[in-house]
Design a protein that fits this description.
Layout (H helix, E strand, L loop, with lengths): L15 E2 L33 E4 L3 E5 L2 E11 L3 E11 L4 E12 L4 E11 L5 E10 L16 E11 L2 E10 L8 E11 L3 E11 L2 E12 L8 E2 L3 E5 L3 E10 L5 E10 L3 E13 L2 E12 L11 E13 L2 E10 L2 H7 L3 H4 L3 E12 L2 E13 L8 E20 L5 E15 L23 E16 L2 E14 L2 E2 L14 E2 L3 E13 L3 E5 L8 E16 L19 E16 L2 E15 L17 H6 L14 E7 L5 E10 L4 E13 L2 E10 L23 E10 L6 E11 L4 E12 L3 E12 L2 E12 L3 E4 L9
Parallel strand pairs: 1-2
Antiparallel strand pairs: 2-4, 3-4, 4-5, 5-6, 6-7, 7-8, 8-9, 9-10, 10-11, 11-12, 12-13, 14-16, 15-16, 15-43, 16-17, 17-18, 18-19, 19-20, 20-21, 21-22, 22-23, 23-24, 24-25, 25-26, 26-27, 27-30, 28-29, 30-32, 31-32, 32-33, 33-34, 34-35, 35-36, 36-37, 37-38, 38-39, 39-40, 40-41, 41-42, 42-43, ...
């Protein structure tokens, strides 16, 4: 913040040159019109080993001492010193300038004035009296940080330079425009090492002449990549759920490769939160980050409604050389309720999974190899319990070969493959009654800790093209081996628990044939200028895809780990029709409209017997068509999938995706989003609607009693509206939220108001959470100094802008 306050005159030797033309009259910085300190290119500057001295009235040399009177000037290669009079001793290097002293450093963009200066060009020691000046501020343009082109203004009763350190006494510093700065920092002493650090002692921070806070010690790094140990700015705030909060932190720069940050925050209504952030870069090819966040709920534990817990995250990557890459992340969460209670992000608070994964991979031209371990924990309830699903791969190896042409004699032929081999584990929740610890989920099960699973999928593909028709066919073998499987029909009637697991080996050999026909596009060009562009082009793209899979005879026995177990027999054809409109604007062509309709017809409505009536069924083909389940009985056709994208002009984007099911007589799901951007105004809105239609019973009729949904119903709206941005001067405001129409609940909301001046900004924000176990309102504030940083309990990543 106090970077480069004073001149640096460093010349190994110099010679005297008299009677040169006088330099232009200096224009010292004015408090009314502060200079922006644009870099000036100096023509005809003196050489590094020379010094020019001039004066209008008198130039006298007495035994190597020069007495310059009347517009005296000493000019070096990168600096210039002007005053009413200057006395300069060439042998000792002592110079004394008096009266309207003006100094400018062209290399470092420094300008200052003072009444008198004593300086030694050999030792670089100096004293400056009643000093004022401007220095070029270092702009650290990071995302979310307020920046300004204003130079820093400083003043002091006197200052001295010792080696490379400046000491300012009874001084003041500001980065605002004068004569009425928004903020100033006053103190009896400032220590500044240019390009390195600045320190203030017993300083008062003022806003509009009003003292705001006192600090016995203040530190600011001036390095390009600042890393210095020290305490962080305290933060305070209030939450309707957690009470008043007060936090402190310490940053430890261990060495050039490692650092750590520790924060402690006390919530009067909850307890104490601790955060430890440890980062490292052991070598040029390796880096990692570890974050440990924990809260001990000492207040609410008395009534049994508390959510103490820990959220630990680790991520890292390393380039091992020769094309090998290692990377991984570890996520440990003690309970979903803890995340809902203490997460500051809505997306994180509603995320019910904890995923950890580590891998080593290498690419061999068209092939790739990977060995990885993965653990996924899917929570079913917010309260701490054993009600969660665990999926684990420890380890798994995969080897993949991309399409490689092996023949072009008659038709081109490509060959590729996917393969994997690993040890997997799955356990479904064993939910218990808290009162008597009795198991109440009879469908719980668990595989062995290391169940073997192998898969090999070679594929041969060819293509035929004729007169605009493209016919692509492929043949794939799915050879899979599973170490364990479910026992079909297991129940209490045959003495077996539901979801009983057999220890025998299950082999699956399935053949897949795909045929894709792309027909010639239908095009028309409109040479009429519209608001969309100078020209328009309408394109219609029809496509037909046939797929046949046979050999999956044990679909209901397979334990689900990922999409590998969702492959089912099918005999189907998919019809797809896409309409596109392109607009030419000058030399640029953009897609302004796209609408795709897709539907699948099933010649085998039972998918080889995989469909069980009266329950939710998911197959690989249904997942590839839409993300919502629709198979609860045998059927001959899928819902009609519609995807629309519209971007009529720059700054507007609309997308709508929906599934219309003729069998149920209406839309079963819909996802809509719209984004608008115009100068400083931004608007976004969206809706996600799932009808939650009832499952059909085993006789093909809608359920009338004990109704259950094929997909959980949902109807949520999200919105964002904002005017302004991080660096816009004046008022900026924005609001964002998520509203659940079914429950009439505003689940999440942010309202933020920011006022930016030429050198600082004031921000206030209200945050609202009403999800799961959390019903909370937070109030946050921040004061931002341009090019320096911010103070308060509103972090940059939590701001709207």
């Amino acid at each position: 913040m106090l970077c480069l306050l004073f001149p640096q005159i460093l010349l190994p030797q110099f010679s005297r040159i008299l009677n040169l033309p006088s330099a232009p009259e200096p224009s010292p910085p004015s408090e009314l019109t502060p200079d922006k300190l644009d870099h000036v290119v100096r023509p005809n500057a003196p050489a590094l080993d020379r010094i020019n001295v001039t004066a209008d009235e008198r130039q006298v040399s007495e035994s190597g001492v020069y007495h310059l009177r009347g517009h005296a000037v000493i000019e070096l290669s990168d600096t210039i010193l002007k005053a009413d009079e200057i006395d300069y001793n060439e042998e000792t290097g002592d110079a004394e300038a008096r009266g309207h002293v003006y100094y400018e450093n062209f290399t470092q963009n420094e300008r200052l004035t003072c009444d008198r200066v004593e300086y030694n060009t050999d030792t670089q020691h100096g004293k400056y009296y009643n000093v004022h000046g401007y220095i070029k501020s270092r702009i650290d343009a990071r995302p979310g940080m307020l920046t300004s082109n204003n130079p820093f203004y400083f003043e002091g009763k006197w200052a001295e330079r010792i080696e490379d350190k400046y000491i300012v006494h009874d001084g003041m510093v500001t980065g605002c425009k004068l004569p009425h700065p928004w903020w100033t920092l006053h103190g009896p002493k400032f220590d500044v090492i240019p390009q390195k650090q600045a320190k203030a002692y017993n300083a008062w921070f003022h806003i509009k002449q009003f003292p705001i806070f006192y600090t016995p010690f203040f530190y600011k790094s001036l390095e390009k990549d600042p890393r210095e140990s020290g305490f962080l700015t305290p933060n305070v705030g209030h939450s309707s759920l957690r009470g008043f909060m007060f936090g402190l932190g310490y940053y430890w720069a261990i060495n050039r490769s490692y650092d750590a940050t520790y924060r402690v925050q006390d919530f009067t209504g909850v307890g104490t939160a601790h955060t430890l952030d440890f980062r490292g870069k052991p070598n040029a090819n390796t880096d990692f980050s570890a974050i440990l966040y924990g809260v001990w709920d000492t207040v609410r534990q008395k009534d049994g409604n508390f959510y103490s817990g820990v959220d630990a995250q680790f991520s890292g990557k390393s380039n091992l050389g020769d094309g090998w890459l290692a990377r991984g992340n570890v996520d440990y969460l003690s309970s979903l309720g803890f995340r809902q209670q203490f997460s500051e992000s809505f997306n994180a608070a509603i995320f019910s999974e904890s995923v950890s994964r580590g891998s080593i991979e290498k690419y061999f031209g068209m092939d790739s190899f990977e060995i990885y371990a993965e653990r996924l924990q899917l929570y079913q309830e917010a309260v701490p319990s054993n009600d969660y699903v665990i999926l684990r791969k420890l380890p798994e190896l995969s080897y993949t070969g991309r399409d490689q042409q092996v023949s072009d004699t008659v038709l081109p032929v490509w060959f590729s493959w996917d393969s994997s081999m690993g040890l997997v584990h799955r356990s479904d929740p064993t939910q218990t009654d808290q009162s008597n610890a009795a198991i109440i989920n009879e469908n719980a099960y668990s595989t062995s800790q290391f169940m073997p699973r192998l898969d090999l999928e070679p594929e041969v593909k060819t293509a035929f093209r004729w007169d605009g028709f493209d016919l692509i066919s492929s043949f794939t073998l799915h050879e899979s081996y599973f170490g364990q499987s479910l026992i079909p029909g297991a129940s209490a009637d045959n003495g077996l628990p539901p979801n009983a697991i057999a220890g025998g080996v299950t082999n699956r050999l399935a053949a897949e044939f795909d045929l894709e026909l792309t027909m010639p596009t239908i095009e028309r060009i409109y040479n009429k200028k519209t608001f969309l562009g100078d020209k328009l082009k309408h394109v219609i793209e029809p496509r037909i895809t046939y797929k046949y899979v046979d050999g999956v005879d044990d679909f209901e026995r397979l334990i689900r780990f990922d999409e590998l177990e969702t492959l089912a027999d099918t005999d189907q054809v998919e019809f797809s029709l896409t309409n596109r409109i392109y607009a030419k604007r000058g030399d640029t062509v953009s897609e302004v409209f796209m609408w795709t309709l897709s539907q699948e017809l099933y010649f085998d409505p039972t998918f080889g017997g995989a469909i069980v009536s009266g329950q939710r069924n998911v197959t690989l083909d249904s997942l590839e068509l839409t993300g919502y389940a629709f198979l609860d009985q045998p059927r001959h056709y899928s819902p009609l999938d519609s995807e629309v994208r519209i971007s009529p002009i720059n700054g507007i984007f609309i997308e709508w995706r929906a599934d219309y099911d003729p069998l149920r007589g209406g839309l079963i799901d819909s996802g809509f989003t719209m984004d608008f951007h115009r100068k400083h105004f931004n608007f976004s809105a969206g809706n996600n609607d799932v009808r939650g239609v009832n499952l059909f019973s085993t006789n093909g009729q809608p359920q009338l009693t004990n109704q259950t949904y094929i997909s959980p119903p949902a109807n949520q709206y999200r919105f964002y509206a904002g005017f302004g941005d991080t660096n816009r001067r004046g008022w900026n405001a924005g609001m964002s939220g998520v509203y659940d129409y079914r429950t009439s609940t505003l689940q999440y909301a942010i309202i933020q108001v920011t006022y930016n001046t030429d050198c600082c900004g004031f921000t206030t924000q209200m945050r609202r959470f009403n999800i799961g176990t959390r019903d909370d309102t937070d109030y946050r504030i921040a004061f931002t100094i341009a090019n320096v940083g911010q103070f308060g309990n509103l972090r940059k990543q939590e701001r709207l802008f």
